[in-house]
Amino acid sequence: MIVEDALSGFRRLGLAHLPTPLEPLQRLSAHLGGPRLWVKRDDCTGLGLGGNKLRKLDYVLREAIDQGADTLVSGGVVQSNSQRQVAAAAAKLGLACHLAVYHGRLAPSTVEYEATGNALLNRLFGAVLHDVPWNGDRNGAITALADGLRARGHRPYIVPYGVSNPLGAVAYASTLLEIAHQSEALGFLPAAVVHCSGSGGTQAGLVAARRCLPHTRIVGIDIDAEPGRVRADVLAYAEAAAAQLGQPFDPADVEVVAGHAGPAYGVPHQATIEAIRLGAALEGLVLDPVYSGKGLAGLIALVRSGRWTSGQDVVFIHTGGAPALFAYRHLFD
Predict the structure, then answer these.
(1) Which residue among the candidates 8, 29, 74, 80 is catalytic per the annotation?
(2) pLDDT tens-digit readout, 126-185
(3) Residue 292 catalytic?
(4) 3-state SS string over the chain?
(5) What's the pLDDT score for residue 111?
(6) pTM exceeds 0.90, yes or no
(7) Which domains are assigned to the chain?
(8) Which pLDDT band, with edges at 50, 70 and 90, does 1 fall under?
């Protein structure tokens, strides 16, 4: 495949366990009575309890090592899955890690929110946490933190919010390549690949590699309650990643589905809770209320609306996030 040849020109560190499994969701498919559902297990990438960001970091941090960085700098909300994976990677690589922890984007629902889940793991991985107010600028505080460290003689490498930038998108193109190989071996062609979409890099990578599966629709489920902003970011990163991979880019390939994010980012609604319960009870999947749970909620709604027929196959990407579930324990009492 042309995409495979292009990706071979980008070096990875080997942090992530790849390829991740592609598994049938037989019981969920039967329960919903729609298409045959499959799950791409990007929650199984390994390091630091895994997740889709580790696939991006595998490529992005190759650049950090090549530049001689001694510190990784990133940021996110208290229960950010991305921060947790950056902190785990830093520990594995022997690098210092400083994280801008945004407060104010969402109100903590319980005292557990600040102390358990990803917040606990960040501390265990040895990250230095810097509390900063949320002002809507995802990367501003991260850049300021890196500037301060550089002024004190460190060699920081900035990992953007969500590991979302053109190189992160290039890295995530590898997911669609794996799905193409795995689905062919399993004897089916996906009608769609569905996933949660927030900071944009994940969907951008899938779109950039779309020629691996030209008849497959890439469907991003907005989990930020900001579908316009999400689509704009996906367009920018996908176009840049496609250029780096030597692939054609069509803005019409970018589909961001609104209406399944609940009232706001990080605030699960009843459909999210139902999706998490169904995934666990029917398939043994552990989803989180911020990302993967909302993504599955969107997929379930699309299946119930009749978007696909019973003879079609649809792949759901499980992006990880299990540790954050414990910070929302009160929803499942």
Answers:
(1) 80
(2) 999 999 999 999 999 999 999 999 999 999 999 999 999 999 999 999 999 999 999 999
(3) no
(4) CHHHHHHCCCCCCCCECCCCCEEECHHHHHHHCCCEEEEEEHHHCEHHHCCHHHHHHHHHHHHHHHCCCCEEEEEEECCCHHHHHHHHHHHHHCCEEEEEEEECCCCCCCCHHHHCCHHHHHHHCCCEEEEEECCCCCCHHHHHHHHHHHHCCCCEEECCHHHCCHHHHHHHHHHHHHHHHHHHHHCCCCCEEEEEECCCHHHHHHHHCHHHCCCCEEEEEECCCCHHHHHHHHHHHHHHHHHHHCCCCCHHHCEEECCCCCCECCECCHHHHHHHHHHHHHHCCCCCCCCHHHHHHHHHHHHHCCCCCCCCEEEEEECCCHHHHHHHHHHHC
(5) 84
(6) yes
(7) 2-50+165-332 (3.40.50.1100), 52-162 (3.40.50.1100)
(8) low
